[in-house]
Amino acid sequence: MDAALTECVARFHAQPTRWALAITGGGVRLGGWLLGVPGGSRTILEIQTPYDTPATDAYLGRVPDSYCSPQAAILLAERALQRARWLAPRQPVVGFGCTASLRSDKPKRGAHRAHVATVGDVGTRVWSVVLEKDARTRDEEDDLVARLGLHALARGVGLAAPPVPIRPGEHIDVEETPSAEPLARFLADEGGTLCWLPDGRQMLGDMPLPRALVAGSFNPLHEAHVALVRAAAQHTGGPAAFELSVENVEKPPLDPAEVRWRAGQFRYRHTLWVSKAPRFVEKARLYQGVLFAVGADTAERLVQARFYGEGPDRMECALGEIRERGCRFLVAGRVDATGAFQTLDRLPIPPAFRDLFESLPESAFRFDVSSTALRAR
Fold first, then answer.
1. Of 372, 374, 297, nearest to 334 (Cα)?
2. Calpha distance 357→348 (Å, rounded)
3. Which structural domain range is residue 318 located in?
4. Does 155 share its domain with 205?
5. pTM for the model
6. pLDDT tens across 133-150, in order?
7. Rg of the Cα trace of the chain?
8. Which residue among 195, 197, 208, 249 is least packed, with the fewest CB closer than 10 Å?
9. Quick one: 206 and 146 in the same domain?
10. Euclidean distance between CA atoms 312 and 236, whole angstroms
11. Same domain, 138 and 204
């Protein structure tokens, strides 16, 4: 392993993305390069080498149409990505797949070739090369495939890599495909919403809105959230769901891995709407006519001008727009820092906006444990 390769791997280990790799047919020495430079545990989740045909079938969970093709490399990378998301559920991850048909102890009728794929949140990239037959030893061909794999890893995180030593007449084809996953398309868009159904389907575009929404960060989802959404559904006589904004007024946006983790808490249980609307006035533009179920502490902040940053006029404009959009607030009582049960009746709601707030009876919902205590527990 020369100095250029060592330097490239060291730079690769310094970036935050984590990887799962699946390599078959050639280029296996790439794993040794990655683990032979300090720092590999920061970036490498696992390296699988399903070399035998049945082993490859078992790893993929299916029999591919071809074992050495761009499609086979993508299948390996997609399976590696699934593994990575399972192994590191709240971290940025990418799957890597490599398949090759190289010089053997038996004459090959087909071309000597290799295909490398990476699959992540941004989409899929495939590098393919057909080697001049019998121009290299098996060791030289294997070294080239490993270098092509390192090139793909480096490009996946925006790094430069040592050149791949192809011969005159050979060339490397690169094909890129943006992610078709609805979450990726939603994050790349300027607005709109994503509806995450309990069965795991992600739906973009116009979907029937629920009667009520419980907005929150859900880090984590806990029983108070669930009790509130049930109470809201019973109160309105219609469906209620949860809403998560990937953007936050005071914090960085949630990355795709974090969104998936938080959405995963709702699977098989509840519908989750995902938006880029951190403030209720922005939510009202997306969810017109919806009742927002909130705690008394949130309702109190909604009518305090200091939370709008630009004085009472800004607050009045925001609340006025929420009214125009047909949205209102269903306020659940909360225990405050003194231990008193705070209800809507005790809040200083300006008379001009009192019609925007409706009280959820204590008999319908009361949960005295704070979110902070629930997270700690």
1. 297
2. 12
3. 183-376
4. no
5. 0.86
6. 989 999 999 999 999 999
7. 27
8. 208
9. no
10. 31
11. no
Listed residues 179, 194, 220: the one ending a domain: 179
147 and 202, same domain (yes or no): no
For the cut 90, the answer to whether the pLDDT of residue 240 exceeds it is yes
> How confident is the model over 12-26, as pLDDT tens digits?
999 999 999 999 999
- The reply to whether 123 and 228 lie within a common domain is no
- Look at residues 159, 177, 68, 182 and name the one whose alpha carbon lies nearest to residue 118: 177
Of 131, 151, 179, the domain-final residue: 179
Least confident of 91-100, 175-184, 253-262, 309-318: 309-318
Do 336 and 189 have their domain in common? yes
Domain count, the chain: 2
122 and 221 part of one domain: no
Beta-carbon count within 10 A of 150 CB: 23
52 exposure class (CB count in 10 Å sphere: 0-12, 13-18, 19+):
exposed
